[in-house]
């Protein structure tokens, strides 16, 4: 699924074949479109298009190019248009010092005024900026108290600014220009987390390769996703799903993206989510705050934890995946019987099966469970987290009233003794001594992997 978060389908270049364009987008799995107004007239037309299609929504606003025409009557018209249920954002608004079609002080005033409208209505904003990064932040900071959320569309700023805007709660959106051969900021795309990105076409402008030079349309947004997938080493499906999830978080237009997942795909691996319960409460873990991984909501209630039969049904043909991994936002071995049943079935089908665990399995059951996993789990990833018992307790905040570092190490030894391949993982948060952790792994005879914060797979 893809969401094109920024289109201009209302303009006359689509008058001849608007319906075909929209249908083509839908057939390319573009499930939602946010069409953006640039003045009162285009906002009104945009809302009309949105009303005619379940999956099209609209932003309403005055573009910086048209700031000079802004007055009280226009403001009133915008307020009225915003009452429409298909109006889900204010935009596009902002500053454009590249074209300078409206005087800069007028642009700033009009931008500030529409930011206040966003604050009053609680709606997100779609921001357009060209060559005005300092001023745009200045207007936002002086107008709002961090209580306006939104997206910077077709982002052309630098990495530092992007990271600062993300910290302030904004999303960053990228369009067809990232597919151009002369696009210079590939490194920046790598650095900005996908969890904060949206994708767009900005059609009819900025047509992605290989159609550059032709009229752009929302059906080309998968090409933008493909470029990001190549850069971020994810699948195009992953990019589509994650950016759709993000767009829904911002605009609330695709509630199905919040559906809780029992099995979920990332790249070409399938993950099984047995539980969100855990024997720890790690300082870096989003389990109790917002358990989302790569656009998958894993917030499963205990009463909804899957049975083995249910999981097997949802997995379908396991051989279509490179591997199947037991990994939720909780400790999978709390559901040992589930893992044993599903794992045995997976092995009978010829799958490669992995288990991601915090290594507390033997503590949970008061016995050595490693031999029970033989022939069921091919590889276990165990979170070592750090190299010392005291730091481990500080990071993990376990439910036990005794040190669990040594029992966890012992579990690793038992798994290795049972001939199960073990990878020891750590998360690269400040204060973790990577070298000492790597030494522990080497001494135990396990593989070692440093994971970036919040990364699965
Ligand atoms: S052990 Fe894993 S699931 Fe449990 S709190 Fe720590 S990071 Fe989260
Ligand atoms: Zn724009
Ligand atoms: Zn635009």
Keywords for this entry:
457 residues; alpha/beta; TIM Barrel; binds iron/sulfur cluster; 2 domains; 18% strand; binds zinc ion
Under CATH, the homologous superfamily of the largest domain reads Metal-dependent hydrolases
What is the percent of helical residues? 25-40%
The proportion of strand residues reads: 15-25%
- Which ligands accompany this protein? iron/sulfur cluster, zinc ion
Query: Helices and strands: which structural class?
Result: alpha/beta
| Overall form | elongated
The appropriate CATH architecture of the largest domain is Alpha-Beta Barrel
Rounded mean pLDDT is: 97
Number of domains: 2
Computed over alpha carbons, the radius of gyration is 25 Å
Question: What distance separates the N and C termini?
Answer: 21 Å
Largest beta-sheet characterization: 8 strands, parallel
Tell me, what is the CATH class of the largest domain? Alpha Beta
What is the CATH T-level topology of the largest domain? Answer: TIM Barrel
Q: Tally of extended strands? A: 17
**Unreliable runs, pLDDT <50, ≥5 residues?**
none
Number of helices: 16
What strand order characterises the main sheet?
1-2-3-4-5-6-7-8
């Amino acid at each position: 699924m893809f969401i094109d978060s920024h289109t201009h389908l209302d303009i006359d270049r689509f008058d001849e074949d608007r319906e075909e364009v929209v249908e083509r987008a839908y057939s390319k799995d573009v499930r939602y479109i946010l069409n953006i107004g640039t003045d009162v007239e285009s906002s009104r037309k945009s809302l009309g298009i949105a009303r005619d299609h379940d999956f099209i929504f609209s932003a309403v606003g005055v573009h910086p190019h048209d700031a000079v025409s802004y007055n009280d009557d226009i403001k009133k018209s915008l307020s009225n248009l915003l009452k429409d249920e298909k109006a889900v954002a204010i935009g596009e608004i902002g500053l454009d010092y590249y074209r300078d079609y409206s005087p800069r002080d007028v642009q700033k005033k009009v931008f500030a005024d529409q930011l206040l409208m966003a604050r009053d209505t609680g709606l997100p904003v779609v921001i357009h900026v060209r060559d005005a990064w300092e001023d745009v932040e200045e207007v936002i900071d002086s107008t709002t108290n961090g209580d306006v959320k939104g997206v910077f569309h077709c982002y052309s700023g630098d990495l530092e600014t992007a990271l600062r805007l993300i910290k302030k709660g904004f999303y960053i959106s990228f369009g067809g220009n990232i597919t151009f051969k002369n696009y210079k900021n590939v490194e920046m795309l790598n650095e900005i987390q996908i969890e904060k990105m949206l994708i767009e076409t900005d059609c009819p402008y900025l047509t992605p390769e290989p159609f550059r030079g032709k009229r752009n349309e929302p059906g080309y947004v998968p090409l933008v996703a493909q470029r990001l997938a190549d850069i971020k080493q994810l699948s195009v499906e992953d990019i589509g799903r994650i950016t759709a999830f993000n767009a829904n978080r911002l605009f609330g237009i695709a509630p199905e993206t919040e559906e809780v997942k029992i099995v979920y795909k990332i790249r070409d691996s399938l993950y099984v989510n047995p539980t969100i319960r855990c024997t720890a409460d790690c300082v870096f873990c989003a389990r109790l705050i917002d358990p989302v991984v790569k656009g998958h909501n894993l917030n499963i209630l205990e009463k909804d934890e899957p049975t083995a039969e249910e999981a097997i049904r949802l997995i379908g043909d396991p051989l279509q995946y490179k591997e199947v991994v037991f990994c939720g936002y909780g400790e999978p071995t709390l559901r040992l019987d589930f893992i044993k049943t599903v794992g045995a079935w997976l092995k009978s089908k010829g799958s490669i099966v992995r288990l991601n665990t915090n290594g507390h399995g033997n503590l949970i059951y008061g016995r050595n469970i490693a031999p029970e996993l033989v022939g069921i789990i091919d590889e276990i990833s165990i979170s070592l987290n750090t190299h010392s018992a005291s730091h481990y307790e500080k990071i993990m905040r376990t439910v036990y009233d005794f040190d669990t570092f040594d029992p966890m190490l012992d579990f690793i030894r038992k798994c290795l003794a049972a001939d199960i391949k073990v990878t020891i993982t750590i998360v690269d948060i400040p204060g973790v001594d990577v070298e000492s952790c790597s030494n522990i792994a080497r001494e135990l005879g396990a593989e070692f992997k440093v994971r970036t914060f919040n990364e699965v797979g």
